[in-house]
Design a protein that fits this description.
29% helix; single chain; 43% strand; alpha+beta
Length: 146
C-alpha cells in the first residue's frame, strides 16, 4: 500500500515566480539543509541525487528524475532509493499574488530497510524535512517581493 508524505505552505509569491525558481533544479541546492541535501543535478537538469541524513547516523541516497513540468502549476518526477524503493514526488503550486505550495512524496514500493525506517519515524522525519524545504523556499523568494 502506498505511503504519502506531504507538507504545504502559503508562500507570498505568485505561482509563476515559485515555478520559475523550482524549475531550475540547480536552485534546489538553496533549499537543502543538514537533513536533506542536493548532491548533484543531472546534466540537462532532468534530475539529480539527494542525500538524506537522519537520526542515529542513518543515511540514504535518492536518485531523482523529472518527468512532468507544467508551468506554472506543477513539477513531478520519481525518486529511487536503492534497487527497491520508488516514490512519485510532486510540487503543486496554485495562486496569483501568493501561492499554495505543496510538496508530496508517494512511496510506491519500498525495500525492507526503507519500509522499517518509514514505520519507525521516517514518515514524520521526511514531513519535517519537507516543511523545512518550504520554509527555505519562502525565504528564497522573499527578496523578489521586496
Amino acid at each position: 500500500m502506498p505511503t504519502t508524505i506531504s507538507a504545504s505552505r502559503q508562500i507570498e509569491a505568485g505561482a509563476a515566480d515559485v515555478y520559475a525558481f523550482l524549475a531550475k533544479l540547480g536552485n534546489h541546492w538553496r533549499l537543502a539543509d543538514g537533513g536533506m541535501r542536493l548532491i548533484e543535478v543531472a546534466p540537462g537538469g532532468g534530475g539529480g541525487v539527494i542525500a538524506m541524513h537522519g537520526p542515529l547516523g542513518l543515511r540514504r541516497v535518492a536518485r531523482t528524475e523529472l518527468t512532468v513540468a507544467v508551468a506554472p502549476e506543477r513539477l513531478e518526477g520519481h525518486a529511487y532509493v536503492g534497487d527497491r524503493t520508488r516514490a512519485h514526488v510532486s510540487w503543486r503550486i496554485a495562486g496569483e499574488e501568493s501561492s499554495d505550495v505543496e510538496l508530496v512524496a508517494i512511496v510506491l514500493s519500498a525495500g525492507r530497510l526503507d519500509r522499517a525506517l518509514l514505520g519507525f519515524g521516517g514518515r514524520g522525519w521526511l514531513r519535517r524535512r519537507f516543511e523545512a524545504v518550504l520554509t527555505r523556499l519562502e525565504a528564497e523568494l522573499a527578496p523578489a517581493r521586496a
